Amino acid sequence: MSAAPPPTAPSATNATDGALHSAALWRLSAGSLVALIVLCIAWEWFLAPLRPGGSWLILKFLPLLLPLRGVLSRNRYTMQWSSILYLRPYKRRAKALQPAKPGK
Q: Which InterPro entries match (predicted)?
């Protein structure tokens, strides 16, 4: 006689997996990326252009297009690595806002 295998308890990864596939969080993520792309274009085109009429800096939105397909198709790996890409402008701005060190 063979005994039936004991039932397995849901693992911690399965418990959090549902949160990662939440439709509301996915919409927030995809909407934020699209809004950031639109804001980058609008900023350099007519909100606060470097020169009147815009400049070549309008192309700074192009790196944000790289993860767009993966985010829209709910690819978890793309959402993970693209979060690093979004932090780049914030890091640059924070460094620019730091006070200058004396003697330099």
A: DUF2069_membrane
